[in-house]
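Running this now, will post back.
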Amino acid sequence: KETNDLALQLFEAALKAEFSKKGLSFYITSRRRAPSGQAKLIIQKWDTHGPEEVKRNYSAKVYNSLKRMKSSPMNTPQRASATTAFLDAVRSSSSHLDGLALDIRTKNYTSAQMEKAIDAIKAVGGSPYLEPTKRGTNRCWEKPGSNPSSVRLHPTPAEGPCAYEHMHCKVPTKYQEQAANAGAASKAMASW
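Update: finished.
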């Protein structure tokens, strides 16, 4: 956990410096989260953006268990069983649970600023993932997901289909390695 926390701090500091160089605001909406918090966010995606958003962004196990939970009558053994299965599936659903991801608010970015944000994330070794990934004509960005474009399509950011819009970024391996090396060096020095 401490190594992951340090890796996240290193990555966040690099991102913050790169965003600052590009003149961009930098606001993190989420870092490490508990499984219960992750479950609430997945349910919120289902309720706000529909089942297809969950299907596109999470494993079949998460999607199917939530679908089963949503279709089970309240206050029944079936609902209790489906809820347990969903929570079990959620435990391996996101790098946020290990403290190895963060979400950057994008609702205030223009297309030009989004292009700079994507470049900034890539410059420090990150892989931007733009959410929500809604497809079709009622989407926020021309190309959401793992290879996002910077062309905003929806005229009112953070409303309607663009509610909870953000860029998800996993901590790159190089920061995890730096953190592990720092931890090993610290332990070696402590043993002197």
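The CA atoms of residues 51 and 63 lie 8 Å apart. More later if anyone needs it.
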